[in-house]
Specification:
Length: 686
Amino acid sequence: MRFAISLLVVICITAVIGTVVKQNEPMNNYVNQFGPFWSELFGHMSLYTVYSAWWFLLMMGFLVVSTSLCVARHTPKILRDFNNYKETVREQSLQVFRHKGLGYLQMGPEASLQQINAWLSAHGWRARAQVRNTGVMIGAKKGAAHKVGYLAAHSAIVLICLGGLFDGDLLVRVTMWAQGKSIYQGSDFTQMSPQNHLGPGNPSFRGNLFVPEGSRSASALLNMPTGVVLQELPFEVELKKFKVEYYDTGMPKLFASDIVIHDRETGTTQAATVKVNEPVTYRGLTLYQSSFEDGGSELQLRLRNLSGNDDVDLTGKVGGAVQLGQGEARSTLEFSDLRVINVENLGGAAAGAAGGASDAATDVRRVDLVGSLDKHLGAGVSVGSKKSLRNVGPSFSYKIRDASGQAREYNNYMLPLELEGQRVYLLGVREATGESFRYLRVPVDGRDSMDAWLSMRRALADPAQRNRAARRYAEAAAPSDNPKTREQLEATSLRVLTLFAGAEGLKVNAPSQGAIGGLPALSDFVEKEVPEADRPRVSEVLLRILNGSLFELYKQAQQQLGQPAPEPGPQTQAFMTQAVLSLSDAMFYPAPMILQLKDFKQVQASVFQVTRAPGRTLVYAGAILLIIGVFAMLYIRERRLWIWLESAPGRPEHTRVRMAMSSNRDTPDLPTEFEALKRQLLHEEA
């Protein structure tokens, strides 16, 4: 029994680990969470697939066997004890009991026997009498169901463990072994062969069924420790309509699916609605509303080149992909997701995220020369304690995968957001799925678009445009009667713009990012070329020249767009302040283009959990038995009572009664109960 208890404790600890550590996640998620060493160690210990690990199943099997043997060994004894009243005890033995009593009844032994038997029967005692030469011994007991609690509790452990084994992937593995099936380890499920399919007769499984609106599906995916298996269903599920309601916080409040079940054998149909906590059962299979995803929404996009003017309109579909470029520059654009509702906390936005508001006197010496992306691209919304929840509109996610298979994930908002008094587009990027998105803030122009900023970014990448802006700045800033000063100022302006554009400077660690640019390039130039004593003065001068030159570049960009030249003022100053920081951060944006969402047609999809759980009945029965067993063992006390009846010495018409009582649990109220029993049987006064 001690071995079974030890196994039960270990299984409980393992179940806690399986609850804390997410099961059947991609290995990259565990590497990001635990690091390379621990993630590999935990993988060897099968902590990512605890409930299907061989050692866990072995412990469950040992616990079932051990507990079953314990129940089998004690059951005959307990059943015999139900009919054993121990009326054969000697009358002298009653004197050694802790709870004992002696009294007299004013009637003969035969009448006393009838009266006591009637009283015991009326008060729930089961009794049996043994007639001896010198008297009668009555053996009575009450609360024998206490031992039923022992059997029920131990049987419950067996049933629950068996139910867990049946509803795990043990039967799936046995079925696969018997049918010669194999696990599919790829990512393209359309390439799965018949060897990766299980038939509808699989006795136990738990899989996920993905059904887009207006479509049907009859195959569920079963997650296995090293891949997936496709489970064929005896019916098709058609999703007519998916319904979702949201709280003000943007969290789903209710989601439900209107479905039609098409029986593949009989051809009959059955309409139903699956809601959270309201599953639908058909032919022994239960469909639960698990979650919802995008079902292949159609996207209309505009690809906007950061360096050239060749904007391209694209159409895509969530879950689809588009090839970009040729040869070694070839990449794949993969559309990941569309979120129509995004509720963000826009209250108390704090400056500090990259691309946030700043003044024109930013000290470039304080800009670290670090090529890490998250040092330059900040959080989308940085908030304080004040909350102002607002739906900021749709966003979509996509990945750009290079020829080597490496991919970055991007998340762009369709509409601009107002942050810190400035309307900006948020362009997010992250290197791995476990990371948070870092956002580039692109300011909008007077038409609420990013055209002005994008024209500045393209002009900054064009040497001819930089030369023209430097010349115009020098003409406006230098004295008209001093040509030499104008030439020097033009050369300095051109050098500053060239450094800022990343066309001159040191190479960063990632070759794909090219030469470093933005404010870090100016910081590097000051650190390397200017004596330390002169750096504050030179930094201030360079920033003034940069701001003036970029303003000339802004005017050129507006003229190319057919817009009037911007006039100096608070609005223009706010735009330029954000634009300078945004252009600096854009040098570290790891893509040569920006994708803008123009329009979309949303298609939702439901994810159902489909189960055939023969062990569910065993688990329910085990739970009921466990409740009964625990209640019986804790709240039912077994009490035994012995009563010896004999003729009173010298008074044949009276009966001397000797009593004793015992219990499996000696509680504080047992003496009180025995005293009350004596008074009632012997007619004593309290």
